[in-house]
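Z., the sequence and structure:
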Amino acid sequence: MFKSAWSRAIGVSVWIGSVVMLHSAPAHAGPVIERIRASGKVQIAHRESSVPFSYLDADRKPVGYAVDICLRLVEAVRKKLELKALEPAFVMATPANRVQLVAEGKADLECGSTTNNAERRKTVAFTVPHYITGARYLVRADSQIEDLPQFEGKRLVSTKGTTPLKAVDQANQERMMRISLLEAPDHAKAVEMVEKGEADGFAMDDVLLYGLAASRPDPSKLKVVGKFLTIEPLAIMLSRDDAEFKKIIDDEMKRLIQSRELHTVYERWFQRPIPPRNVTLNLPMNYLLRDFWRYPTDQVPF
């Protein structure tokens, strides 16, 4: 039976303070650290249009909340490995290939808007979540749709390879809603399909929907609607095969949270004007993330 976002949120609240993560240092460096030492670089996978987490600015430079975090993590790795210099090297990722990039060692950190879930943990690892969100729907401002049931018999798009796409597909089958589910190659294309009337709505993490709408030429033509269909803990992806590297990343994420440095980074991207159009999302930290950061861990109950 498909769990409601509310029941899952209750599960988060019950679970938050209960997990203690124990780490043990390996006897020798793993493949990620060996690669970093040899190259003097950390390969950072970034996204093209996951505003405000990871996207390209007007100069095609990777920017965003997750990118800022990853740059701090790179500096922590440099200090821990006692290197004079360590260069971030950016690699473009898509929803379809991001897991593969990390699993194959083509990216050391995937700095975007990726959900930590059980299926992905079979292939990659995650550090402490930097955001907790949930799937809702972007529709045209003149649309009468208010939630998932109103998409019955209509066209709903989501981005290929994402958890909201799977969640909508499952709900569609279980409830026999006859929704025509469409796949877009990236977030930007999905928004464009809604604007052009090629889809009646776009299902995605609500924070991404707000960011995508704010970046359009006329944000007033779009709106975000609906209850949370899912709860999504977004976290930076990394290799399962290097425990020492993961410990460095986990320890620095916890330090950034507990020192409140990460709160400052959050305010920079969610409550102040951001490039390229200097719009403000005006999204204060939600209660799920605020509570989760009281006891930061890489362990999530999904």
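The first strand starts at residue 41 and ends at 46. Confidence is low (pLDDT under 50) at residues 12-27.

Let me know what you think.
H.
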